[in-house]
Amino acid sequence: MRGVGLLGVLLLVGATAPAWAHHSFTAVYDLKQAVTVKGTIAQVRLTNPHSWFYIDVKNAAGGIDHWAFEAGTPSGMIRNGYKASVIKQGDEVTITGFHAKDPAQNMGMLRELTTADGTVFGLFGPQQAPSSQ
Q1: Rounded to two decimals, what is the model's pTM?
Q2: Domain range 25-122, CATH class
């Protein structure tokens, strides 16, 4: 009987763990602090729970700053028109989004990604603000 009870508790914890780990965008990003960066794709990670776009951006001193932008789920990005084969390492992009609450971090939440040919992929519509998730 104890084994059945322990199994039930483990299943319950396992089922709710993803909800504990999932954060609100508003807890991490300042939705009043817009950011736009232009650079080259270093890496794209289409993984759950959220996708990430890593880009290298030239700074004023001529060096490279590494930026990370959190985006929606892979399936959400695909629904919004993004395809994994479209953007490759080295491609030039411009990303607009919201800066992390910690101003020392080169990190943000992606709102729109624009490729060199002008194709726009967005997490949200142009006028739609993100909600707490």
Answers
A1: 0.74
A2: mainly beta
